[in-house]
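The aim of this short unit is practical: by the end, you should be able to scan a pair of folded records and say something sensible about each. We start with the first protein, listed as its amino acid sequence and then its structure tokens.
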Amino acid sequence: MKKTKILVNLEKTRYKVKMIGRPTFAVAGVLRKLATRLDRDKSVTRISIGMKDCEGMDSTIMGMLATLALKVRSREGESKVQNPGKNKQLLNGLGLGKLFQYVDEPEGEEGSWHELQTGSAPPAPPVQENAETILDAHKKLMETHEDNVGKFRNVVDMLEKELDK
């Protein structure tokens, strides 16, 4: 298994993200922070997610990708997934295909790439922050596709109860 990494490169009006390994909820907070940066940087109207080296992902990561795509869409921008491979089936399984254009093309090495997260076992984010990220991701999945409501209602209910304590 490849070491999990999420890399980002800001190229004028586009965020380029590379996902390497098998990102899970444990590293989803970095995508949440990228979404916050996207809120501040209104000039970004495109996002591309490179998945050539992505071996899979969990629903929290997919919810964060949906969040990024919807922010770009609200600016009438475009979101694409490069070289999705088997990840296309995962994304489509949660109804996210309508948010992304799938393309098979080089992901590019040029530019200044910054690592947002490394390691197969990164330092754990604070429990509260991690729970909020997982909650936000699953709410976004439920908003994105009605079939996801039944899939994730219990997760959302449980997290909301935990966060209300």
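Turning to the second protein, read its sequence before its tokens, just as you did above.
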Amino acid sequence: MKTKLTNIAFAAALLLVGAILTAQSPVKDPAKRILGGGLVSILTETLCEDVEGYIGPTPLDIRIKNDTITDIIALDNEETPAYFAKAAKVLEKWIGLTPKEGLDLEVDAITGATFSSDALIANVKAGLKKALEKPKED
């Protein structure tokens, strides 16, 4: 009986400690990472789960430093490499802009790689919306 009460008390203490730690630690956003030195990475995998190119998802890693888009990196995808390379040229249009400017930018799809470039454009727009979100306060 004493062992059973000890086990119950121990389990209750673990639950209490877990609740305290959860309440004190900020919720991590899987789409937004702070890399240091003012560099922020926006990952569109979870933001654009329903956005697909010709074959499937076309996730991106959008890098922003000091409120300027510095790089947009295409992540693993199943698109045909030759068509995707053609479509990926659309990403250059956002480099050097602020997220606000990038969100307002009107970009046309690349002829011959329309599905892939439309998906990339949608990923960039979703990523920039995420970048402009204010952190949620408790």
